[in-house]
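Researcher: Here's a chain I'd like modeled. Treat it as a single chain, no partners, no ligands.
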Amino acid sequence: MLGRHVLADFFGVAGARLDDAEQLAACLEAAARRCGLTAVAPPLLHRFAGGGVTGVILLAESHISVHTFPEYGYAAVDIFSCGDSDPQQALNVFRVALAPQREQVMTASRGVTLPPVGNHESTKGRKHESE
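Model: Modeled as a single isolated chain. Structure tokens:
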């Protein structure tokens, strides 16, 4: 297995929380730190004129994203982490900040059927060009 992919639907979230781009950016950074993941750039966020935010933080180990819909009290959180990190820890950052009334969470193992590769550098330990 290369990694785990968590998809979370949060329902019943206060609209003001879902429209707060600064708080969502802080969540993206904190979620990455909580898992010991490596951000390769600051979070990138887009605010929609009618409300809502789409944000992503690119990680050496993959990505974390959030898409909010204040008019529905809904947020979609996507956490894909390669290596040994636990994406549930990152999800907890969003749980605390957004305080959903209800949630649905799906977790998928990624790269399960890949053949073993001898002496392959682990995803977690890869160096990227900025280092």
